[in-house]
Amino acid sequence: MGFARFATGCLFSWMLIGLLAPSTAHAQQSVRDAVSQHLDEGLEKRTKPAPAPRAPQKPPPPARKQEPARQPRQQAIKPGEGFHWSSDDKPEKPEPVDPDPLPHRLFGDNLKLDPKAGAGYRGWLAQDYPRVEVPHTGYFTWSLEVKGRFFKYIALHRGYYESNGLAAPRNQTAQTAAQVGQYAPKAAWLLGAIGLEISPAWQPIISYETRAFESTAIPKAPVRIVPYDAPEDTNWQALPATTAPLRMVSGFETFIAGVRYDASRSSSAVIGSKGSVKKSVIPPFYLGVGLIQYAKPYQVSVGSGVLSELLFNARFRGAGLAFGFDTPELPDRVSVNFAGQAGIGEVRLLRTLTVNEGLPADWLIGYAQGNLTVGYLYPLLRTKPTVFISGALNGGGITFFYFKTKREPGEQTTSPAANWDFLWGARASVIIPL
Prior knowledge:
By secondary structure, this protein is mainly beta. Helices cover about 10% and strands about 50% of the residues. Strand 4 (about 135-150) and strand 5 (about 155-165) form a beta hairpin.
């Protein structure tokens, strides 16, 4: 009788453990496991199996032979007639010489400076999440800029500082904290690009840019903030949830080292006169190596699928090809400037955990970034020095995305986005060339 009771008790205990085991394991799921499971489920939906082979089709009947068409009789060309190709037949009409070429500068050719002061509006449209709404953020800013040319060898393509007076550029990673009281948005932007002319057409360049933006995120449902220094095996369900408005600080940095090529061999970093710039089909462009670092509050996303319960203090990094082009800045002319990057990226969620580690073996993360600026320069006063006013519109952004490196024959896959942000702005400035 005692043995029967013992056996019955053991059997009941095993059944109870079997029923409770799944819920206990789920309650103790680590952050790493939650991220890996979300990535596996999201990327599996993006892969379609190869289509079934089609049945062999009968070859089409042979086409009938067609007789060659009769060629018209050609008349003999008399001496002195016919086509004559020469570059001197239709010379290009030179542009009329401007009797008063602008700009009028104070210094000579060895020193040219274009200081600029302006004001404008800057907008930031960040990615929304199912549980976290990020309203569009906009703010008025002021800016100081200078372009220069020193002894015909050193070109300062751009030295730029922009702010709204409430914050300064800083190399600070993103932060996420509960919002207490009212809060004023902040923005700052610092940019420097310099080149050294080694020939009339080729110029090595180095560029560094840093931005800082702040906004407010409004949770529509409780979210759990994962500290950046948290261990990767942390039980995410044990983290506290919050529904309070969140303060978001986004930092963005780029570094470019490359070579600039100018086919016209005449445009420079500063404002030029219309007659001094030779026409060229290829605008000045550059190629090089680019590095990017981008920090912001983030929820792991695979396209529209989001790990909504967890909010990370993520770092986005990438390295790849940097490229861009620009047209000369001339009086009464439209100028265009484009800068972009594309390469391989990394999304770091914790100090010891990246999204890359949770991806299947044949998936990687890429990134693409670009910014386009269109401006117009108008001479307000033809004095010495000349006074210009300029207007400019710019827009651009950055995205990180997943892509598959190996595909089976006939397999169809997509490249879902992991993150995106869009920036835009409008600016009016006064320029006094020296």
